[in-house]
What we know:
The protein is an all-alpha fold. Helices cover 69% and strands 3% of the residues.
Amino acid sequence: MKAKARFLLQEIWLFFTDDTWFRLLFLISYYFSTVCLFGAYVHQSADFFMIWGLGLLAYHFLFKREFHKIRYRYWLLLFLGSALVTTLLRFQDNLLVNFYYYEYIIICLFLYYGIHATKSRSAVHREMTFILSFITAATTVLMGAGLILLMAFPNGLMVWNEPLIVQRNRFTGLIFNANITAFYAAMAIVAITILWVIRRSVNRLSRKRIAVYLFCLAVNFIALFLTDSNDSLLMVVVYCWFLALYLFFKDCRHFTPGIWMRVVAFLLLSVIAAFAALGARILVQTGVSDMLHPPEVLAAEEEEVLFSTHTTFRHENSNLDSGRAIVWGQAYDLICRFPMFGIGRANFEDYGNRYLDGLRYDDFHNGLISLAVSYGLMGTLLFLVFAFLAAGTTLKTIFCRIKKESPDARLVIYLASFVGAYSLYSMFEIALLMDLSYKVLVFWLLLGYLSAYWLPSGRPCGTLDSPSHRLKR
């Protein structure tokens, strides 16, 4: 009996000290936090995960002393120190909530990005394959269910006094916000392409798996187009643009006169592809709209019914920036009032009411601006130093792996392409760091996976792992 109890306690200990389980379950909790019927229950588990995360931080970085393995740890510490100063300076306003955001940021930086400090590359590879498979399967089911319900309820329905399936003439599926639905679909598209590379590298890309991946891509692209989200579509287009850039110039080792022809051709094709993406979105929106509301049926309806019920999946807001210019101006005013250390993330609404007669939105729809308002120019500068160092290491790793024809080169390029595309996406959406959401966690997770393939610090390109030892570290 004692042996069974000891074995059970040992298994429980191994479970709660394994940061892979924490990353997976924490990500899943935020993934379903925006989904209809799940959100209310998922939010109740947030405190449990924050306590678990705090314990993991202590176990890995204090007890096992793995902190020294984190790349650019000192810049991260300086950033966190500046953020802590902000939190303490604004102690009179939402202190506990600001500390909650502070711990969340530490979890993103150390348990998600810092995966390279606690896991071997082979463990990272396995975890990445599993989590991306979950994202692909869960999102495809979610979007597929939403599209099926759209067939049954072309104009949407009300759930808890909130519009579902269709909201403001845009497809939302089982999520209450079209922009979030769009990001889920876009992230699934990215996950599918990365899984494609992973399976292909180990010769596991069978015809059946290819058919499944193509089906998943089709479902998520249709959902993305019907949300009419410019930001998520831009992220996918830029992601594909980075991949095309690699494919177009991977054979170019030196600058020659002929390379300029490739540059011109690539830019021309980029413009054509961008317009093709917009055209494909219009075609899908029009086709689905006509299928749901056949013209012969609509012609028989009265005019007032026609214009009140015909879902076109086009954004009702004709303003291209959707009010971002106004809210960015409000952010500028707050930065001017509190330039050095900011106001703290939890104080956006309170300080907006106090100094600006209220904010237009509860966030600034720009990850970098939200960071500057939260932690001031000091925190933003320290974060940008880390970001540029990470970008430089990523570029060096890409060129080195291409030069050495590393088997991991293509995977690194796909991960780096997502990081670059997401960085642009975060300039127009609630993303990057200052938001408690799946959108933030998945970025730091994939950045962590990418960091596991970085060149070792201070070592030349020739010290890359050989293919035979690539997954044994």
